[in-house]
Specification:
Length: 293
């Protein structure tokens, strides 16, 4: 058996003349949280839709849970759960009714569906709201219900398309805890996000997608060290950053930088030296414009 839950080779996808995915290669180890990080329109949803068999690639191959997504579509489908960007729940029903219905539709008996719904309601902190119509829920509650819905049936691989988009900080953190818990239970989680902090906090491995290509891959630490070295920051008296100068960080170069800028800066300018943030990495990797071929 492969150590990989997801293996992607040279995936290509065009919509009319727009190249949306241009030779994607990825490998996700079993049991890890993998974050696909990219700006709006980078191709994240398209890739997740391919991996979850919703759309077919023009070229390349993908194995999910060891199955080919084109030849063994049904086996792939029964190995995965998918939570979309827009919660697929019925607003007229309560959380309890939605989850029970999903259980029944997935082939659980009436009793199994009831038990599973109760378990998920508790796990996702929806007990107080369980018998209220979903139409009255906050964004955070909806998202938790959507995630609960994707877990009605136990599956080894979970796809989450921008799971925390639009959530407030508290709900986002609650959802992170749930995702981390699922990973501890052995679920492989593949999520897309536009948030660097989310990828940094959650993921064992990150791939950055930009214009349909993977422009960097690695652990959050590796990504940060890729961009290399320290940045000399100059701040004014209001503690605002007025200048950032990349440096290899040795004492000689920092001395040279300071000598160059000292003459031009007000006397009360303060300096600090910081490691690059994931933001720096992301911005430097995704700054290209879109491309049509
Ligand atoms: N069915 C489609 N037909 C035509 N173009 C499409 C289709 N689906 C996606 N696109 C285009 O493909 C590009 C990538 O879209 P995709 O939704 O995969 O990006 P994304 O990274 O998920 O962005 P977002 O964060 O905005 O969802 C966009 O330019 C989008 O308009």
């Amino acid at each position: 058996m492969s150590e990989f839950a997801i293996e992607v080779y040279n995936i290509q996808k065009k919509f009319r003349k727009l190249t949306v995915l241009d030779g994607i290669d990825l490998a996700v180890q079993k049991g890890m949280i993998f974050a696909l990080l990219g700006p709006n329109g980078a191709g994240k949803t398209t890739l997740i839709n391919i991996l979850s068999t919703l759309i077919t690639p023009d070229a390349g191959s993908v194995r999910v849970a060891g199955y080919d997504i084109v030849r063994n579509k049904e086996e792939v489908k029964s190995s995965i759960s998918l939570t979309g960007q827009f919660a697929a729940v019925d607003e007229m029903l309560t959380a309890e009714e939605n989850l029970r219905m999903m259980g029944r539709l997935s082939g659980l008996s009436r009793k199994e569906a009831r038990l599973r719904a109760d378990e998920l309601i508790e796990h996702f902190d929806l007990t107080d709201a369980a018998r209220k119509r979903v139409g009255t829920y906050s964004g955070g509650m909806r998202r938790r219900l959507d995630l609960a819905g994707s877990l009605v049936v136990h599956r080894p691989i979970l796809f989450l398309d921008e799971p925390t988009t639009g959530l407030d900080t508290r709900s986002r953190r609650a959802l992170w805890d749930i995702i981390l818990q699922l990973a501890r239970e052995g679920v492989t989680v593949f999520l897309t996000t536009q948030y660097l902090e989310e990828a940094d906090q959650l993921a064992d491995a990150i791939a950055v997608i930009s214009n349909g290509q993977i422009v960097a891959q690695g652990t959050p630490m590796e990504m940060k060290s890729r961009i290399g070295n320290e940045v000399v920051e100059l701040r004014n008296e209001k503690d605002e950053v007025i200048h950032e100068i990349p440096t290899i960080g040795n004492i000689y170069e920092v001395k040279q930088i300071l000598e160059q800028v000292a003459a031009e800066m007000p006397i009360n300018t303060r300096i600090s030296i910081r490691r690059p943030s994931l933001d720096d990495v992301f911005l430097s990797l995704t700054s290209e414009k879109g491309r049509v071929s």
